[in-house]
Amino acid sequence: MQGPTCPQPEALFLAAHSVAGGQRLGLFHAPVGGPLRGLVIYLHPFAEEMNKSRRMAALQARALADTGYAVLQIDLLGCGDSSGDFGDASWNDWIDDVELAVQWLRQRMAAPANAPLWLWGLRAGCLLAVNAARHLQVRCNFLFWAPTCSGKTVLQQFLRLKVASDLVGGTGKGVMEGLRQQLAAGTAVDIAGYRLAPSLASALEGCELSPAGLEPMQDSGAQHRRVVWLELSTREDASLTPVAVKTTALWEQAGFALHSNTVRGPGFWQTTEIEDAPALITATCAALAPAKPGEPAQDLLV
Question: What is the SS3 assignment for 118?
Answer without folding.
Answer: strand
